[in-house]
Amino acid sequence: MNWYAIHTRSRHEKQVDLFLSEKGIETFLPLIHTLSRRRDRKKYVDIPLFPGYLFVYAEKEHLDSVKYTRGVARIIGTDINEPTPIPDKQILDIKSIMETDVKLDPFPYLKKGRWVRIKAGPLRGVEGILVERKGHYKIVIRIDLLQKGAAAEVYIADVEPI
């Protein structure tokens, strides 16, 4: 069993998550609670952290039932016919951040920077790239296969280099 990234039709992430759950397939759709501003009102909504993507935990042989689910565009892989598993550590890091009250934002995918590990607090054990933006420190978690990242604010005292 491995984690795989699923590319969905535009704005169909929640529907695909529901369809796959009904089939008994374990899914993970990280959502962030954000303020949506319309012309006439403001309202809080849950949007996907990685728009257009969700994750499934399945055996490679059972991915056909995932591929032919309504709303699924494709299963992400390095080869056109070969789905590529995502390392468990990357999914576990995002899950551990989602379980805390830490503010999480989408962030550009980074390759350069200092690799660090959080040594204290609710994010203990999470690894990522440390960046500074406007005087605040953030740890950027990467999903290499999707070339996407997410940033969570951290205290510099809780960080140790790897």
UniProtKB/TrEMBL annotation:
Start and end residues of each NusG-like N-terminal domain: 1-98
Keyword Iron-sulfur (UniProt): no
Keyword tRNA processing: no
Alphabetized InterPro entries for the sequence: KOW, NGN-like_dom, NGN_dom_sf, NusG-like, Translation_prot_SH3-like_sf
Parts forming coiled coils: none
Ranges for domain KOW: 109-136
One annotated GO biological process: transcription antitermination
UniProt keyword list: Transcription, Transcription antitermination, Transcription regulation
Name of the protein: Transcription antitermination protein NusG
Species of origin: Candidatus Scalindua rubra
